Amino acid sequence: MKIAVINGSHQGRNGNTNIMASAFLKGAQEAGAETVEVILAEKEVKYCTACKACWFKTSGQCVIRDDMAEIISLIKDADVRVLATPLYFDNISSMLKTFIDRLMVTASPYWGKDQQGECRHLTTKAAPQLVMMANCGYPERSHFQVISHWVQRHARNLNAQVIGEIYASQGALLSVREQEVGMVVANYLKALETAGREIASDRKLSSETKALLEQKFIPDEVYIREVKKYVDSTLVSAHSKNIS
Fold first, then answer.
1. What is the band of 193 on the pLDDT scale with cuts at 50, 70, 90?
2. Which CATH number fits domain 2-218: 3.40.640.10, 3.40.50.360, 3.40.605.10, 3.30.70.2760?
3. How many angstroms separate the CA atoms of 29 and 9, rounded?
C-alpha cells in the first residue's frame, strides 16, 4: 500500500493544511503504508497551456520543463492519492488546480462513455483511489460544497473512486495548542491519525471516525467573536506601525 499526499497550500509546511496532512500520514505510516508527500509550494509547476503535445507529438511526455515529471514519478504507483488544500474562494487552491491540469499528460486523447453514459477521458494508467482533504476559516461545513462536488467529478473523469472526504471548518484553530481549544484540536488530530490508519488498512473511513472529523472545535458564535477580535487587533497593530 502506497499513499501519496499532494499538499496544495501556498503556505507549504507552515500551513494548517500541512497540520492535517501530517497527522493523516502519521496514522498511515503506523499502519504500515509507504507514504510520500509532495509540497507543491516547494516545487515549480507551471500552467498547462493545452498544447496537447503530450498526446500527439511527444508520446506522453510534457514539453514544459519544470518539476511536474518528478512529481508524477513520485506518485505514479500510489494506491491512494490524497488531495489536500485550503479553501480559497469556495474551491481548491490555484496551486492544486494547476497540478491537476498538468495531469493531462497521463490521460488518453480518446474519450469513452462511462457506466452512466457520460463521456470521459480514457486514462493510460490505473487510477488511484482518492481522498479529499481541506480546511477553511469559516465555521460552517457548507463552504466545502464546491470542493466535494469537484472531487467527485474529477474522480469520474479519472475512472477513480473517492474513498474519503475530510473537511475541517474553523481551520484557523488547527494551529492552536493552548488551553481547552488546544485539547480539542489535539483530539481532532488523533482522529486524523485514525483516518490515516483506516485508509491504509481498509481503504475507507469508519462511521465513528467520520463523526469525529465532522465535529466543530468550538461553538460558532464564540469562534466568530474571537476571529473578529483577532482581525481588530491585527488591524490596529498594522495601523500603529504605519503611522510610526
1. very high
2. 3.40.50.360
3. 22
